[in-house]
Amino acid sequence: MPLTAVILAAGAGSRLGELGRQYSKAMVPIAGQPLLGWVIARLRDAGVESFIVVAHPTDARLEAFLRSVHPQAIVVQQRERRGIADALCQALPTLGDEPAYLACACDSLFLPADMARVIARGRSRVGVAVIGVLDMGVAATASRSAVQVAGERVTEIVEKPAPGSTASSLVGMPLYWLPRTLGPYLENVAPLGSERFVSTALNAFIKDGGVVEAVQVRERLEITTAADVRRVGAVLQGATTR
User: Fold this and answer.
1) Integer Cα distance of 154 and 1 in angstroms
2) Are 97 and 183 in contact (CB under 8 A)?
3) Which stretches of the chain score pLDDT less than 50?
4) Residue 99 structural domain
5) Residue 117: helix, strand or coil by DSSP?
6) Which residues make beta-bridge pairs with 212?
7) 188-196: long-range contacts (C-beta < 8 A, 24 or more apart)?
8) Among 30, 77, 86, 95, which residue's Cα sits nearest to residue 236?
9) What pLDDT, on the 0 to 100 scale, is given for residue 240?
10) What integer pLDDT is reported at residue 99 of this predicted model?
11) Strand 145-150, strand 129-135: pairing
12) By C-alpha distance, which of 124, 1, 103 is closest to 53?
């Protein structure tokens, strides 16, 4: 059965400064191609065969890029930017009969080998959800999400925990293997502020007896600011010239 990745690419890039006024986050140019192109290339190297890209309807440049370079990709729209859980709900009807899929955000580049490990874990454990995690230290969880585990099994994901309230140093990454049985949980996520988080759906899944496992990744190149664009561009340029 073909392996599909859902790429979450509807972000506005509001913290990119002048770059964000010219480009969406997915289409910001880095080392010779849009960020989305780098994400797709790494996913292909990890074994992904087909792509569903969740985009904002105003992003004509993204749709033109996909038509030209990746014409087999399916584009669906997230008309309001309401977070990852909402974006995934827009993609679910296009997945057909696939029992599970990979999901990732376009603002993060992971090593293909790490993505392949997440895929392999999910494929070996039917019905299990998998989240990529990175050990960033306990202090980092205060502005991110703390993933609490017992062995490799996730017991809870806490969004931006108060300092000192968790001992976990594992931060949840926007890299998931999700079974289709998680669909109703994604659809019923209550918003926190203006966003609907995947972590809320995963916590409800766990509470109902579902299994979520953590796979540690070694690297995340995150693109949020113009400085990140320059830094990641230098890393990618260096990798391609070696």
Assistant:
1) 27
2) no
3) none
4) 4-241
5) helix
6) 129
7) 189/85, 189/86, 191/82, 191/83, 192/159, 194/81, 194/82, 194/83, 195/82, 195/83, 195/84, 195/86, 196/82, 196/83, 196/84, 196/85, 196/86
8) 30
9) 62
10) 94
11) unpaired
12) 103
Instruction: Enumerate residues 6+ apart whose C-beta is below 8 A from 84.
Output: 8, 103, 105, 174, 195, 196, 197, 198
Instruction: Determine the pLDDT at residue 13.
Output: 83
Global pTM exceeds 0.85: yes
Q: Which two tokens stand for residue 94?
A: 């296009």
Query: Per the structure, how many domains does the chain have?
Result: 1
Distance CA 100, CA 211 (A): 14
The CATH number of the domain where 142 resides is what?
Answer: 3.90.550.10
Quote the pLDDT of residue 65.
97
Burial class, 193, CB count within 10 angstroms (exposed 0-12 / middle 13-18 / buried 19+):
exposed
Residue whose structure tokens are 């899944």: 205
- CA-to-CA distance for 176 and 105, rounded, in angstroms? 10
Question: What is the per-residue pLDDT across 146-171, written as a single tens digit (0 to 9) for each?
Answer: 999 999 999 999 988 888 788 899 99
What pLDDT, on a 0 to 100 scale, did the predictor assign at position 100?
A: 96
| Coil/strand/helix, residue 202 | helix
Residues in Cβ contact with 113 at an 8 Å cutoff, skipping those fewer than 6 apart = 46
Beta strand 108-110 pairing with 129-135: unpaired
How confident is the model at residue 143, as a pLDDT?
Answer: 84
CA atoms of 63 and 60, how far apart (whole Å): 5
Which pLDDT belongs to residue 14?
Answer: 84
Distance CA 143, CA 159 (A): 8
DSSP 8-class letter at 192: B
Compute, in degrees rounded to 10, the torsion defined by CA atoms 79, 41, 67, 195: 0
